[in-house]
């Protein structure tokens, strides 16, 4: 897809995206690419009630699948907190929605805050070329104005429309989110907090500019 057609030339997105993964998942990423939690459950052959618990309920702690891949915990998203800020969805639907997407940070500060929360384990940072990724995955991409994985403190209202399709965002920024949630439209210069891709990015290594293996607690800096 031509990058001008997918709108990249018209956006204010940074030229690099960041994905933080547990070091234990690095071998899987190199073999299968970046998979959403739902795709990882598919790969592990997990179905039935066990899958429902992992995909549609809060995970208090990280879990190791039979494939050896780790899926993260969701401590900042207790269902009671989500009930106060969700519109048109149940907490269980929200967990499923997030588990079906791959997430990227758009700035290093947010990435390092997530790294700090995982200070006890080694991590891998993948720095990706935004334009190249969007040239291949624009149709599966959605942007969010908030950290969708945190519902504590004064959590912003959220729902399905919090995930604004990339091409919609190029045309009208956060207008569709505000119309759906009944909130004031965010300024056009309000930077996205997350870039997300539905399902998986199996060829993710094509878009990688830099890889950094971080020791527990180590802060990431661009080389």
Walk me through what this model shows:
- The structure is a single chain.
- The chain is of the alpha+beta class and 223 residues long.
- The protein has one domain (8-35, 78-94, 101-214).
- 32% of the residues lie in helices and 20% in strands.
- It is built from nine helices and eleven strands.
- The protein has helices spanning 26-32, 37-44, 48-56, 79-85, 91-99, 108-117, 130-137, 166-172, 175-181; strands spanning 16-22, 34-35, 63-64, 70-71, 101-105, 123-129, 141-144, 164-165, 194-198, 200-201, 208-214.
- The strands form four sheets. Strands 5-9-7-8 form a four-stranded antiparallel β-sheet. A three-stranded antiparallel β-sheet has the order 1-6-11.
- Strand 3 and strand 4 (70-71) form a beta hairpin.
- It is globular and about 45 Å long.
- The model is unreliable at 1-5 (pLDDT under 50).
Secondary structure layout plus pairing:
Layout: E1 16-22, H1 26-32, E2 34-35, H2 37-44, H3 48-56, E3 63-64, E4 70-71, H4 79-85, H5 91-99, E5 101-105, H6 108-117, E6 123-129, H7 130-137, E7 141-144, E8 164-165, H8 166-172, H9 175-181, E9 194-198, E10 200-201, E11 208-214
């Amino acid at each position: 897809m031509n990058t001008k057609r997918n709108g990249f030339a018209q956006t204010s997105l940074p030229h690099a995206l960041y994905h933080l993964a547990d070091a234990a998942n690095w071998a899987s990423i190199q073999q299968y690419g970046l998979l959403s939690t739902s795709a990882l459950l598919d790969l592990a052959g997990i179905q039935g009630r066990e899958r429902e618990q992992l995909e549609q309920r809060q995970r208090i702690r990280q879990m190791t699948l039979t494939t050896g891949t780790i899926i993260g915990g969701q401590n900042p998203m207790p269902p009671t907190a989500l009930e106060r800020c969700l519109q048109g969805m149940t907490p269980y639907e929200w967990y499923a929605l997030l588990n079906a997407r791959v997430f990227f940070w758009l700035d290093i500060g947010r990435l390092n805050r997530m790294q700090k929360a995982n200070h006890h384990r080694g991590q891998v940072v993948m720095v990706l070329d935004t334009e190249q990724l969007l040239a291949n995955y624009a149709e599966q991409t959605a942007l969010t104005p908030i950290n969708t994985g945190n519902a504590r403190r004064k959590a912003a209202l959220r729902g399905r429309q919090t995930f604004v399709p990339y091409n919609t965002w190029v045309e009208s920024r956060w207008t569709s989110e505000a119309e759906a949630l009944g909130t004031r439209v965010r300024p056009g210069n309000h930077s996205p907090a997350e870039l997300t891709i539905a399902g998986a990015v199996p060829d993710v290594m094509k878009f990688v500019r830099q890889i950094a293996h971080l020791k527990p607690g180590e802060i990431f800096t661009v080389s």
